[in-house]
Amino acid sequence: MIELRGINKSFGKTQVLFDIDLTVERGQHVVLFGPSGSGKSTVLRSMNMLAEPDSGSLKVDGIEFGPGLPGESGKRGGRLALRRRVGMVFQQFNLFPHLCALDNVALPLRKVHGMSRGKAREKAAIALRRVGLIDRAANYPAELSGGQQQRVAIARALALDPEVILFDEPTSALDPELVGEVLKTMREVAETGMTMVVVTHELGFAKEIGDLNVFMEDGRIVESGPRGFYENCKSERAKQFLQAVM
Ligand code: ADP
Ligand code: MG
Prior knowledge:
Blueprint: E1 2-11, E2 14-24, E3 29-33, H1 40-47, E4 55-60, E5 63-65, H2 76-85, E6 86-89, H3 101-113, H4 117-130, H5 146-159, E7 164-168, H6 176-191, E8 195-199, H7 203-209, E9 212-217, E10 220-225, H8 229-232, H9 236-245
Parallel strand pairs: 3-8, 3-9, 6-7, 7-8
Antiparallel strand pairs: 1-2, 1-4, 4-5, 9-10
């Protein structure tokens, strides 16, 4: 579904990703974890070209994107094709404060899929129902709890019928008592077979859904492994990190 090959990325003089190779199979649930500043967000953002790599290649659903490539990549059409396939949920929900929950979900359907207002709102209602928030459709973000806002953001990603959804620390900005409802929604999305890449520090959740678990440090993938990884990881750094943080 997603193939990162030899991705390097610098911001100014500082290199933040070194030769990242990562393959995400269709239907797989990948957990990315590691210290703050290790490059997790930049890896996620490389997967939808929010961060453009300096070198290396990105393939999504068989389509190649990357610096200096002909065809779809680099052009607006290419980005749009990518946005249609790759949804993203951020730590800070990024909802529009002046739009109700329904219109927050409907707006990208109009922008990305070119749907009419009526059709987009219909589709948005279905997505809100999936995350259990149809009764909040008319509420503005300020009238919703953080957990509800994040579930609206998940509905917004789902509504676009993406091939994969990227979650960047989706529960890190939430009060502890609100984490559970968001994890529950993510679990339900996972159960539909959606391909997911999740940056999280929620160890229990990671153990539960991680088909592939990737530990990053200093812009590199240190170690990765399948189910059971958290009990069996080999590198001292991954062990230390798990003990200290998760
Ligand atoms: P993580 O998500 O693991 O905390 P990030 O991918 O956000 O790590 O960041 C990796 C490194 O890149 C950090 O040192 C961070 O300061 C730097 N960085 C990230 N985004 C930018 C940016 N837009 N401009 C400059 N430096 C950045
Ligand atoms: Mg981050």
